[in-house]
Amino acid sequence: MKLKIKLSLLFLMMFLVFMISIGIYLKIIFAAHLPIGSPLQIPQYVGLLLPICAIACIIFSILIIYIRFSIEKPIQLLNARLEAVNIEHPLSPLARKSNDEIGVLYKHFNNMEERLQLANKEQIDMIAAIAHDLKTPLTSINGFAELLSVHKDLSETERQEYYELIQKKSRYMAELINDFSSFTKEKLELESMSTKPVDVLKLFKDIAQEYEYELGGLCYEFICHHSFTGNMLLMANETMIRRVFGNLFSNAVRYGGKNELKVYLTGYRQGNYAFFQIEDNGIGVPDKDIPSLFLKFFTVDQARQIQNEGMGLGLASCKSIIEHHGGKIIAYHSAYGGLGIKFSLPLVI
């Protein structure tokens, strides 16, 4: 039975119960005020009952109309929209001006559609990225193999060079597949992630010491400062948080694009969150690409991706880890000239 029929029957029953109750009440009142033995005055009784009946009809009619247009019709529209959902050809968002429960439901539905479209886009991008990243070295391998098979008169030195190039491209393909496998494995690990109290100050100092040595060995400058105290704790999976730092420092080195690169690490508390910033003075990222940096398989420049042997999964991995810890991560233009990444983690209160 449809909702409009149920509501109509419900209001009809309520109306009948209301009128019967009023009728019994009036009958009792008349009987109490009439002298004993006097007959009940039917016209007077009906004369009082009819206006009450008319007013009740008006009230119930207004309620039915209100529910029809405020609840039933919006639900019908939402139901029709659910049947018409099309990820490939998205429709315009559902519009509702009111902020009641139906309005909130419409907003949640619009957000759900956006997430579905984003997931579909990421899936398409994933297939395109894997196909592109594997096609490029495969083309090179096929070319070198064809040269070796056709040109029998190549010198041993030339043959060795082609063999080495084939091996290099094969290793690159293996690394791409390994990166993708690690990313999918990490997604599964996040679902069953265990956390424990982590001292924020100790974590910051350990990270700073580790990457100061690593960046120094690459002849890059590392600068850090913080305002953490010794009584701050995070509920976190320390291994995964260290993985976030590793990805961010690796990105700064890979894509900084400067010989005299400087990397800055900053830590501070704001409210009930610990904030960490990693910035560099490199070439940065174009404005149009900043909102897309955390999408899976997104790279600013395909040529840079091939040159630096990356699949565009590092920042997507960081986003997944931070959000599973209840924090947020953003990218921005650093005051030092390059890219800045800031993420937050909730403190134990």
TrEMBL record:
Positions of transmembrane segments: 7-30, 42-67
Matching InterPro entries: HATPase_C_sf, HATPase_dom, His_kinase_dom, HisK_dim/P_dom, HisK_dim/P_sf, HssS/ArlS-like, Sig_transdc_His_kin-like_C
Record-annotated Histidine kinase domain positions: 129-349
Main location: membrane
Keywords: ATP-binding, Cell membrane, Kinase, Membrane, Nucleotide-binding, Phosphoprotein, Transferase, Transmembrane, Transmembrane helix, Two-component regulatory system
Coiled-coil segments: none
SUPFAM superfamilies: ATPase domain of HSP90 chaperone/DNA topoisomerase II/histidine kinase, Homodimeric domain of signal transducing histidine kinase
Subcellular location: Cell membrane
Membrane topology: Multi-pass membrane protein
One Gene Ontology term of the molecular function aspect: kinase activity
EC numbers on record: 2.7.13.3
Record field: catalytic activity: ATP + protein L-histidine = ADP + protein N-phospho-L-histidine
Enzyme class: transferase
Annotated protein name in UniProt: histidine kinase
